[in-house]
Amino acid sequence: MECVPDGNRTGGSVVQSFMEVEIILKRKKLLRSLIPALILLSLSVQPVLAAGTDVRISIEQDGYALAKYEPEQGIYLGAYIEQDELIGADPLEFNRLTGKKHASFFRYVGYGRMVPESWLERMRLAEAAPHVALEPNNGLQEVQDDEYLRSLARQLNDFGGPVFLRYASEMNGDWAAYSGDPELYIEKWKLVHDVMAQEAPNVIMVWTVFTFPQSTILTYY
Predict the structure, then answer these.
(1) What one-character-per-residue DSSP string does 49-114 give?
(2) What is d(CA 127, CA 61) in angstroms, rounded to the nearest whole number?
(3) b/e map of 17-30 (b: 16 or more CB within 10 Å)?
(4) Which of 99, 113, 117, 176 is the most exposed place for a label (fewest CB within 10 A)?
(5) Tens of pLDDT along 35-50?
């Protein structure tokens, strides 16, 4: 690991009014345990630097290939507007008001239900990727490789563009009906993944935890 001022890598001098510190980690495999340490390091470095300093963490990996729908730079900007009555949950109006074209919009769907076609059509008009939170609120036992799940997959495939499927999120919290059995959770995750891979290759699964409790997060991975 090295921590170097911008410009010094090529022998040049720092002439701009601010100094950028770049933390570079070169590795063959990224260990998950290093991420918290890097974040803490960036926070600890910041106070001792001059005002205006920008701390950036870069991770380099030999032969790294982008994951499905992973952007080469930056992130996707998305929003949840379904409860915004002032704009009628209209993504085009939301984009107009914010001055930003959002890449994705979010909606909850209870397991056993289809995604409303009217909402999918709004996503098409906004040229946005649907982000569907599929929640098995009757427990994980209802998740089966059956006609419902395959019909849902075919519906998402018919959307014709990228779809983010946030399956059974916040599973590390005991308030979720599908929490408490990590082994079964992983088994059902793989089941849903395999059905989507067969019926809807445009779908990418999104693994989402809550910020607490942290002690149970990795058991669901």
Answers:
(1) SPTT-EEEEEEEETT--PPTT--SSS---EE--TT-TTTTT-HHHHHHHHT---SEEEEEEETTSP
(2) 33
(3) eeebbebebeeeee
(4) 99
(5) 555 455 445 544 544 5
Provide the residue type at 57 as one letter: I
Distance CA 131, CA 105 (A): 6
Q: How far apart, in whole angstroms, are the C-alpha atoms of residue 210 and residue 81? A: 20
pLDDT tens readout for residues 134-176: 999 999 999 999 999 999 999 999 999 999 999 999 999 999 9
Return the number of other C-beta atoms located less than 10 Å from residue 69's C-beta. 13
Please give the Cα distance from 167 to 196 (Å, whole number).
11
Beta 20-27 vs 2-5: how paired, if at all? antiparallel
CA 108 to chain CA centroid, Å, is 15
Do the beta carbons of residue 166 and residue 132 sit within 8 Å?
Answer: yes
The edge-to-edge listing of strands for the beta sheet with 129-135 is: 78-79, 104-110, 129-135, 163-167, 203-206
In order along the chain (221 residues), what is the average pLDDT of each group of 10 residues? 35 34 41 50 49 61 88 94 96 98 98 98 98 98 98 98 98 97 98 98 97 95 95
Closest to 105 measured CA to CA, from 75, 128, 76: 128
Q: How far apart are CA 21 and CA 2, in angstroms?
A: 10
